Amino acid sequence: MNPLILENATANVASPVLVALDFSTADAALAFAARLDPSQCRLKVGKELFTAAGPQLVEQLAARGFQVFLDLKFHDIPNTVAHACKMAADIGVWMVNVHASGGRRMMSAAAEALANYSQRPLLIAVTVLTSMEAADLAEIGITVPPQEHVLRLARLTRDSGFDGVVCSAQEAPLLKAELGQDFKLVTPGIRLADSAADDQRRVMTPVAALQAGADYLVIGRPITKAVDPLAVLSGINADIRAWQLSQA
Ligand SMILES: O=c1ccn([C@@H]2O[C@H](COP(=O)(O)O)[C@@H](O)[C@H]2O)c(=O)[nH]1
């Protein structure tokens, strides 16, 4: 693992928010990140930005103190996914993910590939994309309700040695009850009460998602496309803090 990244990555992040940096250039992503404080959020680098800017961008964000979720959703044969996860760990990312529908052998290979890292990224598997609803699943031959399929894939993920799953916050109460508090739930599809849902289908507001049991909130467009992104992020963090204090 890159020692510079280990030295710089912020350990104390006071918020469960992961800002999705869905930008098309490194310059745009770095300019946006320069406005953020690494103690106030983590960052997610997905397929668009990684394809445009590559591992150097991830290293630059980490060198600025951000913990980075590399959201490439690996889905391939076990050998390929295992090696891809090792490359992600070598860049120094804080979290990396695969598709749970790649199956037990694929996920076990990924977990084994990272087993000897002294400080490995959190290993997470995507269950059912938050953009999908029952009708989308039916078209690909999955006729059970989304929550049932999410639970099935989450159980497989846990049994394959992973740390948690990507799911919607709507499934969080069921997953926490069935899989325990320590199994991490990473939830995109987060929308403010007045945000457009866009292409997301299984959505929830930030505080409702935490109440439901989400550990991390992935938020992209409601922050990045806002007129004042920092004000939106600060407002979300303030609402979360107020809710946390009300629970203490
Ligand atoms: O099920 C999933 C898995 C990943 N994502 C990613 O999260 C963000 C969400 O962005 P918004 O702009 O807040 O919709 C995006 O990068 C997706 O690739 C997801 O939405 N759902």
Automatic annotation (TrEMBL):
<dbReference type="InterPro" id="IPR001754">
    <property type="entry name" value="OMPdeCOase_dom"/>
</dbReference>
<comment type="similarity">
    <text>Belongs to the OMP decarboxylase family. Type 1 subfamily.</text>
</comment>
<comment type="pathway">
    <text>Pyrimidine metabolism; UMP biosynthesis via de novo pathway; UMP from orotate: step 2/2.</text>
</comment>
<comment type="subunit">
    <text>Homodimer.</text>
</comment>
<feature type="binding site">
    <location>
        <position position="191"/>
    </location>
    <ligand>
        <name>substrate</name>
    </ligand>
</feature>
<dbReference type="InterPro" id="IPR014732">
    <property type="entry name" value="OMPdecase"/>
</dbReference>
<feature type="active site" description="Proton donor">
    <location>
        <position position="73"/>
    </location>
</feature>
<feature type="binding site">
    <location>
        <position position="130"/>
    </location>
    <ligand>
        <name>substrate</name>
    </ligand>
</feature>
<feature type="domain" description="Orotidine 5'-phosphate decarboxylase">
    <location>
        <begin position="16"/>
        <end position="236"/>
    </location>
</feature>
<dbReference type="InterPro" id="IPR047596">
    <property type="entry name" value="OMPdecase_bac"/>
</dbReference>
<feature type="binding site">
    <location>
        <position position="220"/>
    </location>
    <ligand>
        <name>substrate</name>
    </ligand>
</feature>
<feature type="binding site">
    <location>
        <position position="44"/>
    </location>
    <ligand>
        <name>substrate</name>
    </ligand>
</feature>
<keyword id="KW-0665">Pyrimidine biosynthesis</keyword>
<keyword id="KW-0210">Decarboxylase</keyword>
<protein>
    <recommendedName>
        <fullName>Orotidine 5'-phosphate decarboxylase</fullName>
        <ecNumber>4.1.1.23</ecNumber>
    </recommendedName>
</protein>
<dbReference type="InterPro" id="IPR018089">
    <property type="entry name" value="OMPdecase_AS"/>
</dbReference>
<feature type="binding site">
    <location>
        <position position="200"/>
    </location>
    <ligand>
        <name>substrate</name>
    </ligand>
</feature>
<feature type="binding site">
    <location>
        <position position="221"/>
    </location>
    <ligand>
        <name>substrate</name>
    </ligand>
</feature>
<dbReference type="InterPro" id="IPR013785">
    <property type="entry name" value="Aldolase_TIM"/>
</dbReference>
<dbReference type="InterPro" id="IPR011060">
    <property type="entry name" value="RibuloseP-bd_barrel"/>
</dbReference>
<feature type="binding site">
    <location>
        <begin position="71"/>
        <end position="80"/>
    </location>
    <ligand>
        <name>substrate</name>
    </ligand>
</feature>
<comment type="function">
    <text>Catalyzes the decarboxylation of orotidine 5'-monophosphate (OMP) to uridine 5'-monophosphate (UMP).</text>
</comment>
<keyword id="KW-0456">Lyase</keyword>
<dbReference type="Pfam" id="PF00215">
    <property type="entry name" value="OMPdecase"/>
</dbReference>
<dbReference type="GO" id="GO:0004590">
    <property type="term" value="F:orotidine-5'-phosphate decarboxylase activity"/>
</dbReference>
<feature type="binding site">
    <location>
        <position position="22"/>
    </location>
    <ligand>
        <name>substrate</name>
    </ligand>
</feature>
